[in-house]
Amino acid sequence: MEDMNETAERILREADTIAVVGLSRDPAKEAHSVPAAMQAAGFRIIPVNPVADTLLGERVHRSLADIPEPVDVVDVFRPSEQAAEVAREAAAIGAKALWLQQGITSAEARAIAEEAGMDYVEDRCMAVVRAVAGIRKERR
Where is the CoA-binding domain (predicted)? Predict the structure, then answer.
C-alpha cells in the first residue's frame, strides 16, 4: 500500500492535465503561484474560476463540467467544507485524481474520491511535491 507521498508523486508522474478549481487572479496568492509553477514545469493547467475569463494564458471554465477535454487531476484551492462538492464534480467528469492543496482536508471528499476510483491527496502542496521529486513534463 503506497503512502500519500508516494501517491502524490505517482499522480504527478502520470498526469499531464490539471484542472485547478479556485485558481486565483491574484499573483500574490498561492492559488495563482502554485498553478503557475506547475504550468512552468510543463503541465497543462485548466483554470476553473467563477469570474475570470483568462488566467495563465488559458481560457477559464466556470465549472469542471464545462471543461471539454479529459482531466487527469483536479487540484482544489477552495475551503475544506467545499471539497466534497468538488470531489463529486471531479468524479462526474472522470478525473483520475483529486488533490486538495496544503491546509485542505475532507474525509467526505476522500470517501467520494475512493468510491469513484480516483487517487486522492490532501494537505499537500502540488508544487512542492513536484519540485522535491524533480518532475517536469515535456511540452508536446
Answer: 12-104
Q: Give the torsion sign (CA, 8, 36, 17, 21).
A: positive
Residue 65 lies in a domain: yes
pLDDT tens for 83-130 read: 999 999 999 999 999 999 999 999 999 999 999 999 999 999 999 999
Structural domain tally of the chain?
1
For residue 24, the number of C-alpha atoms closer than 13 Å in the C-beta half-sphere is 11
The pLDDT tens digits of the residues spanning 11-59 come to: 999 999 999 999 999 999 999 999 999 999 999 999 999 999 999 999 9
120 domain-assigned: yes
Residue 121 belongs to some domain of the structure? yes
What CATH number should be reported for the domain holding residue 37?
A: 3.40.50.720
Q: Which domain holds residue 98?
A: 4-133
Look at residue 98 and give its three-state secondary structure.
Answer: strand
Write b or e for each residue in 46-65: b if 16 or more Cβ atoms lie within 10 A of its Cβ, otherwise e.
bbbbeeeeebbeeebbeebe
The residue type found at 67 is I
